[in-house]
């Protein structure tokens, strides 16, 4: 995508085994561990890797002396990143230069600044002086969007832009206006955008930090959650550029992550919905109904959704767990990991296209049972776009009915996905719900973006010197001739050079950034 070669891009950190900038002009800009415990890099998320912050004592930092173009004093700035939040009502600093303790504020992206109208919202903070706002105990110069950011929800693109006049908070690629807000001193002003013609503090000596900022008593505003592909630009991005950012991550996924409690939780707490019975009674916020619930603290390291056949309100009651509000093009498959207590248990995987729900004609079950505390025998199940489906009528409070004859899945973007259960004897447990998609270009096979390593020194290639990109493909497979460089050293990948296996084949831009793609098949 051209956004990764945009001349405004200072830095983008993909977290592929390190904390270095991989795409922008700003140089290495390697983030250093700065907290009492280290921030881990984990596999998953929209780009294959993400950093996870515990919200207690973890953050990353680049010393002021080494930040280069990340110092935006007297200039403009945009900050964007993908997040998956893990704690509600908890102010968290995502990234930027914000030192409140030493009056060295400049710019920073927060989530949840409730005092001046940013409760559980995306906040773009700016400062001209580095100090608190005159007449106020704290700095009030920040924008805040409208939509509340839930915990345990999907990955979201969040951002801020500052053009020298106003700062705007972005939810995904959407600007949500808030033309009037009245604060604690009865001052009324626009909250999104927030007008700030005074510019950014030119004298800040703040470090650049990620995951926390410096307060008067030391590090604070620790962010609890996951963070993927944080980016900083040297100017305010345009709407079309932000749209391109949104398209940079073409996959949508809901992962059940380990919450802070060990109790049974409502699926609504995870951004999901559930209904049961022929009249589709809503059970999203009532775990006591024992239809679809979420349980935590399992040996696989994740929480999971589960449904207990013995606890159905009625014998053989159908129940449906689902997620809506998506817009996923080029649908390839819907996957989940099943761990059941009885081999007779089965579910159907479902997607919503064109306003209508469709359930897989096939039933998915496990060959070997397992308890919730042991996922050794868990099996990943995959519903492909090419499979036969049945119409599923889902009208909350009115009807939940599976009917009709097998048919092909219609064309169109996926607007939702879910799990339908009407044959549960024991306990069905579902973990890591995800929809896989691809970028499809005429005349080529699908693929998605990633990172490939140089076989000679094990360093990641950048867009400047690689035509195609592959992740999770071992170096010896490159060296053994499955993938060969051309005379210019660019890796040109032909489909007959690859064997399908447990690899994740992906592609990227051509070396001249022309955005002409030659794709191989994407497999996982």
Nutshell version of this structure?
By secondary structure, the chain is mainly β. It has helices spanning 239-248, 475-479, and strands at residues 9-12, 32-33, 41-43, 49-54, 60-62, 77-85, 92-97, 107-113, 118-126, 142-144, 156-162, 166-171, 174-175, 181-182, 188-189, 194-195, 208-210, 213-215, 218-220, 224-233, 252-253, 273-276, 281-282, 293-295, 304-308, 319-328, 331-340, 346-353, 356-360, 379-384, 388-395, 399-402, 407-408, 414-423, 427-437, 484-485, 491-492. Strands 1, 3, 4, 6, 11, 12, 13, 16 and 20 form a nine-stranded antiparallel beta sheet that branches.
Major sheet, described briefly? 9 strands, antiparallel
Q: What is the molecular shape?
A: elongated
Tell me the count of domains. 3
Q: Gap between N and C termini, in Å?
A: 22 Å
Q: Which parts are unreliable, with pLDDT below 50 for 5 consecutive residues or more?
A: 250-255, 257-261, 439-524
Query: Any idea of the CATH topology of the largest domain?
Result: Jelly Rolls
Q: For the CA atoms, what is the radius of gyration?
A: 24 Å
Helix amount: under 10%
Known CATH architecture of the largest domain: Sandwich
Q: How much β-strand is present in the residues?
A: 35-45%
